[in-house]
Please model this.
Amino acid sequence: MAKLYFYYSAMNAGKSTMLLQSSYNYQERGMATVIFTPKIDTRYGVGKIQSRIGLNADAVPFDSTLNLFDHVVATKAKMDNLKCVFVDEAQFLSKAQIKQLTEIVDKLNIPVLTYGLRTDFRGELFEGSQYLLGWADELVEIKTICHCGRKAIMNMRIDDQGRPIKTGAQVEIGGNERYIAVCRKHFAE
Ligand SMILES: [Zn+2]
Model:
C-alpha cells in the first residue's frame, strides 16, 4: 500500500538534499518520479530544485491553482513507470492540494513524499503543514540543532544585520541568510 509521508523540519536541515537523493534512488532503478516545487521559489530558476550540497533536478512548479492529482494522472498516462511523487517546500500547498495528494496515494496507489517546514517565523503552522500533520500516514522529523545544541524546531527570520524580525508576510523565500533554525527557548528570547 502506498503512503503519504511528511518529512518536516526547521530551516536548513537538508530537506532538499534528502528529496533529491530519494528521487535519484528511484531513477537509478529505472523508475520515474515527479517532483513538485513552488513557483515562488526562483532561487535556482523556475522549475529547478537544488540542494545546498550541489544535487539538482528539474521539477514541476506549483502555485495554488495547480491540481496535483490531475497533473499526476496526466503524467502517468505518458509515463507508465511513474512510481513516486515528491513535493519540495510542501508547507506552501493549500488544504485542497493536500487532499489531492491523499487521492494520488489512495486512488492511484503511488507513494507521495512531501518535505517542508512545520511553522513560519511567527511560530504559526503553515496551511500545507497543518493538513499534512493531520492527514499524512507517516510523519518523520528531520532533526537539526540550534547554536546552543538543543533541537531546533523554530525558524527565526533575520534582517541583513542578523537581527530577528517579528512581523511581515508569512511567505518570504530565502536561504541561509534570511532564516536561522533555533530551539524554542532561543526563539522566545
Ligand atoms: Zn537554542
Observations:
- The mean pLDDT is 91.
- Helices lie at 15-28, 68-78, 95-108, 127-135, 184-188.
